[in-house]
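seq:
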Amino acid sequence: MKIEVFDNQIEAALKQLKKQMLKDGVFQEMKKRAHYEKPSVKRKRKAAQAQKKRRKAMKRFQGDSD
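struct:
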């Protein structure tokens, strides 16, 4: 990941960096690695995530057909 700073505009570059990190999922990854997650909890989380993704896709699909 590379962010260029122009004319010493650190605030704008920092904002751009945070936006890019959020998009790439870096913050989520850091939060996940902050503590140990048991395999059973990891499976449940992944299953819930997949179900949420499916529900969102179905909602989007049904909204397009109207």
